[in-house]
Every structure is written in structure tokens, then in C-alpha cells.
User: What shape does this take?
Amino acid sequence: MARGWESKSVEGQIDMAGEHRHTAVLENSPDPKTLQLLRQKESILLSRTRVVRDLNSAQNPRYKALLKKALADLDAQLSTIKAG
Assistant: This one.
């Protein structure tokens, strides 16, 4: 009988520890708006990296001009995210 009581006590302690861990994660996670801005910024940075790589390897002057415009647009988007 004592053995069953101890295992229930241990089970309860494990459950409480799991709840505390879950609560701590929820308290430390940023709000949805901040997460959306972070994802948007990461997406723009990835796009910018690809455009810069393509610009360095491009041979066609028209394509280079198009990539430069795309790069300027991505930089403008980044500046609005950082300012906001």
C-alpha cells in the first residue's frame, strides 16, 4: 500500500514539473505580432541573399538592372520593418 502511494506522489510531481515547464515556455514566447515580424524579416533577408548571389553571377545587363531594383525594394522593406 505504501508503495502505491509513493508512485502516485512521484507521478504527481512529474505532472507538476511538466506543467511548470509548459507555463515557463508560454511566458517566454513572444507575442504573435512579433513572431510574424521576425518571420517576415527572415524571409526578406533570405530573398536578399539570393538576389545578391544572382546579381554577382549575372551576365545580362537587363537582368542585372532588374536584380538591382529587386535589391533596392528588399532593402526598403527591411528598413520599414526595422523602423516599425
